[in-house]
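With this grant's support, we have paired protein sequences with backbone structure tokens. One protein thus recorded is set out beneath this paragraph:

_____
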Amino acid sequence: MLWSVAVEEQFYLVLPLLITAFGRKVFYSFPVLIIGSILFRYASRHGSLYFLEFHTFNVCSSLFVGCLAAYFVLYHRLGAWFERLPRMYIIAVYALFFGYYFFGGNDKVITVLIYSVFFAFFILEQNYSKASFYKMGGAKQLTTLGKYTYGLYAYHMIFISLLLVWIPSYIDIKGNYLLYFGCWILAFAGALTAAVLSYHFIEKPFLTLKEKFSR
């Protein structure tokens, strides 16, 4: 899963250079880059799955969508638009997304963009909407877990892979849904433990450095 973090880091290295060179105008190129990424995915759809899922230009559209959302919040009052958005429309967007998730199939070309737009909508709705039917920030346990999401993302596949290799060599879990569910609980517990340790002993010192450099 760390391949996507590598794509992020490429983006974080390149974007400041583009902004320095072209200023705010660089954001005008993002719709073109999003379309280019989709066309690139379309051209790659029958090729290697690794190339389709791991190539920088195949997956960078998600980052461009996030940047466009931030740009419109900062310079075009998108946050104010979300403040006035009626609850009925919010529910409709969620219904459309979950309808696509469960019944829309898994199109290799457009699904990445649909997910990106939805998650941008979700973040903006949670931060700005006054008509949200639920605010995730109100759940203290989830807010606390939020500190460890980076570690959870980084380590969860390690524990899932270990369990999928180790447990079946001792126990046949095929058809045993209770045991299968227990494996996922163990994987989550292991990933969470690693994420907590990682946050306090690896990430936190770097976050302290970040605060010093941002002053």
The chain has a mean pLDDT of 85. The CA atoms of residues 72 and 78 lie 5 Å apart. The chain has two domains: 2-134, 138-213. The chain has eleven helices and no strands.
